[in-house]
Structure to design on (377 residues):
C-alpha cells in the first residue's frame, strides 16, 4: 500500500488543471532530488532567501525576487510592503495601519476570495468601477494621499476591465505602485518578466502550479526596494507575513523548477506533451455517436476557465436528446468512478485539460469519457 492508501485517501486523475485543492502540481524528479539534498543541511534562511531570490531574478531578467509560501501569501506580503516600505517600526505595527498609507484599490469586477489577503495585511480595500466596465476616471478619482497600492488580479479581470497598461499609467502618474497577481499564468517562461516589462512594480506567481515547484511556494518579482520590504514583512522575520513561511527545501525546489523552465528546450517539450495528449483525446472520442469533440485554447470557448491561456483544451459536448445527462452528471460520474477523474466544464459540456495529466493518463481519461457518454438516455 502507498502513503495515501495507508491514510485511506483516494488518488485521482487531474484533467482540470493546477489547483490548490487538488494538490497543485506533480514535481519533476529533478525538483524532488534537489529538495531531498536541501533537507540534509542547516542554512541561514535569510541568506538562502536573498541569494535564491537574486538567482531567480537574474534568470528572469528583473530587479529582484522574494520567495514566499504560495501566491496568496505573496499578495499579503506584497501589500504589506507597499504600506510599510523598509520601515521596521511600520513592519511591526501591522496589521494596525494608523499613521501610514493604507488604502488598496481594486476594480470591482475582479472581486474574488484572494482579496482577503489584502485585508489580512491591514489594508482598507477600495472598490472602483461598475458592474460591467471601469473607466479611467474611476481610478483617477479614487487615488488620494492614503493610497498605498493598486492590485490587479489577472485571472479575475474580464475584457471590460480597465486594461492593466492603463492602470499602470494612471498609477505611476500619481506615484502609486501596482501589484499584479498572476498566480496561474505560467508558462511560458517569458511571462515571469512580462508584467514587469509592462511597468508592474510587483508581480506574484504560484510556485506550485505551472512552474511545477513545491505546492507551498510562490514568488514575488519586481522593484528591488519593494522586494526588500517584502522580505522584512515575511518569514523568518516577525512581520504580518510570518505565517507565510517557506522552508529551505521548498526554496531550493522552486529554484530548480525555474531553472528547468529557463531552458527553452525543456519548455518546448512540456508544451509539446500537452498537445500530444490533447490530440490523442480528440482522436479517441471523435467517432463517439452524438458527441462533438473540439480542441483549442480556453479563449476559444464560452465558459471555459483554464489557466494559463496557452493550454490546449478538449471540449466535449453531446446531444441531450439522445444522451440524457447534464454536464454536472457527467462530471460526477467521472469523479466517482475508479479511478476518479476531475474535469472542468464549459457552457454546454466538459473540458479536459492536458497539462496536469501524467504520461498515459490521457488514455484512461478517453476510455472513461467514452464509457460514460456511451450510455444512452
Amino acid at each position: 500500500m502507498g502513503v495515501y492508501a495507508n491514510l485511506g485517501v483516494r488518488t485521482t486523475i487531474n484533467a482540470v488543471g493546477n489547483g490548490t485543492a487538488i494538490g497543485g502540481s506533480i514535481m519533476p524528479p529533478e525538483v524532488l532530488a534537489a529538495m531531498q539534498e536541501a533537507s540534509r543541511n542547516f542554512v541561514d534562511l535569510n541568506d538562502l532567501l536573498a541569494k535564491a531570490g537574486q538567482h531567480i531574478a537574474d534568470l528572469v531578467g528583473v530587479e529582484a525576487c522574494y520567495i514566499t509560501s504560495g501566491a496568496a501569501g505573496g499578495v499579503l506580503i506584497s501589500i504589506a510592503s507597499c504600506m510599510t516600505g523598509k520601515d521596521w517600526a511600520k513592519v511591526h505595527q501591522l496589521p494596525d495601519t494608523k499613521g501610514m498609507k493604507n488604502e488598496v484599490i481594486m476594480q470591482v469586477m475582479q472581486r474574488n476570495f484572494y482579496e482577503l489577503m489584502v485585508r489580512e495585511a491591514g489594508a482598507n480595500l477600495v472598490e472602483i468601477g461598475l458592474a460591467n466596465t471601469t473607466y479611467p476616471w474611476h481610478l483617477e478619482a479614487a487615488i488620494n494621499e492614503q493610497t498605498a497600492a493598486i492590485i490587479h488580479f489577472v485571472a479575475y479581470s474580464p475584457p471590460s476591465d480597465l486594461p492593466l497598461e492603463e492602470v499602470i499609467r494612471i498609477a505611476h502618474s500619481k506615484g502609486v505602485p501596482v501589484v499584479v497577481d498572476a498566480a496561474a499564468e505560467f508558462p511560458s517562461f517569458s511571462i515571469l518578466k512580462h508584467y514587469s516589462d509592462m511597468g508592474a512594480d510587483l508581480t506574484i506567481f504560484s510556485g506550485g502550479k505551472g512552474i511545477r515547484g513545491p505546492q507551498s511556494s510562490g514568488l514575488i518579482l519586481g522593484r528591488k526596494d519593494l522586494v526588500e520590504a517584502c522580505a522584512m514583512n515575511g518569514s523568518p522575520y516577525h512581520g504580518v507575513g510570518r505565517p507565510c513561511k517557506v522552508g529551505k527545501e521548498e526554496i531550493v525546489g522552486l529554484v530548480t523548477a525555474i531553472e528547468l523552465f529557463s531552458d527553452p528546450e525543456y519548455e518546448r517539450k512540456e508544451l509539446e506533451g500537452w498537445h500530444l495528449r490533447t490530440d490523442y483525446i480528440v482522436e479517441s472520442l471523435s467517432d463517439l455517436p452524438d458527441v462533438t469533440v473540439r480542441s483549442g485554447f480556453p479563449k476559444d470557448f464560452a465558459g471555459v476557465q483554464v489557466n494559463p491561456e496557452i493550454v490546449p483544451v478538449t471540449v466535449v459536448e453531446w446531444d441531450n436528446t439522445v444522451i440524457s445527462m447534464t454536464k454536472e452528471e457527467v462530471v460526477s460520474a467521472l469523479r466517482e468512478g475508479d479511478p476518479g477523474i476531475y474535469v472542468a466544464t464549459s457552457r454546454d459540456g466538459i473540458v479536459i485539460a492536458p497539462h496536469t495529466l501524467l504520461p498515459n493518463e490521457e488514455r484512461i481519461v478517453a476510455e472513461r469519457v467514452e464509457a460514460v457518454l456511451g450510455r444512452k438516455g
